[in-house]
Amino acid sequence: MPITTCIFDAYGTLFDVAAAARIVAAEPGREDFAEKWPQIAQDWRTKQLQYTWLRAVAEAHTDFWEVTQNGLDYALEAAGFTDAELRKRLLALYWELQAFPEVPEMLTMLKNAGMQTAILSNGSPDMLAGAVESAGIETLLDDVLSVQDVGVFKPHKSVYDLVGKRFSCKSEEVLFVSSNGWDAAAASGYGFYTAWVNRSDKPMDRLPWKPQHVLQDLKDIPRLAQTVK
């Protein structure tokens, strides 16, 4: 069945989650942070995701902003930083994450091909609105869907249900794209046609399902979406 709807994870897929730490590392007077920023950015993202999974299993849902702060607090403490101003600066930048360079053109090509496009994210609506506006891609998306509407984080089935409810499409009509291997795999198990954007050349997650495609970036998404029959 042809693809009619392209759905994207937000953080790490459309938006560069390491951008906040990278920007701070380049600021004057941040030499100590600059030495450790790659590990801090990695720990921040890892803990952010781990906390969503743990909360989903424990049925202790909260706003994504809280787990984002919790993840950063862990990462900073692990690196030996206690500076409140540094924490405030990093969190402020998270609302203005940079989109990956290929994102605007890729979304434009999908819209020109008549595709429906949307984000499906763990992010809260206000966080996602800030990132979308900062990236300047508001007009290239038909909607921004948040797990806040179902009260549980990915990869719970009810999150993926949001796509069909919003676009009245069958799962086979959806190309789901994520930089998280586990997310792409779970979406494949749900019934979506999936692409994993493996920017860091990581191994495939050992799960019952696998994404149909593995890409290094988003440039080939328009071509892929139009070749599915």
Question: In a nutshell, what does this entry contain?
Answer:
The chain has helices at 19-25, 31-57, 64-79, 84-94, 103-112, 125-135, 157-167, 181-190, 221-227, and strands at residues 5-8, 116-121, 143-146, 174-178, 193-197, 213-215. The chain is of the alpha/beta class.
Describe the structure.
With 229 residues, this protein is an alpha/beta fold. The protein folds into two domains: 5-15 and 98-227, Rossmann fold (3-Layer(aba) Sandwich); 19-94, DNA polymerase, domain 1, CATH 1.10.150.240. It is 48% helix and 12% strand. The chain has nine helices and six strands, in the order E-H-H-H-H-H-E-H-E-H-E-H-E-E-H. The protein has helices at residues 19-25, 31-57, 64-79, 84-94, 103-112, 125-135, 157-167, 181-190, 221-227; strands at 5-8, 116-121, 143-146, 174-178, 193-197, 213-215. A six-stranded parallel sheet has the order 3-2-1-4-5-6, with helices on both faces. Helix 2 crosses helix 3 (64-79). The protein is globular and about 55 Å long. The relative contact order is 0.17.
Average the pLDDT over all residues and give the rounded result: 97
Give helix and strand order, one letter per element, not per position.
EHHHHHEHEHEHEEH
| CATH fold category name of the largest domain | Rossmann fold
Rg over CA atoms: 17 Å
Quickly count the domains: 2
**Fraction in helix:** 40-55%
CATH class of the largest domain: Alpha Beta
Number of helices: 9
SS-based structural class? alpha/beta
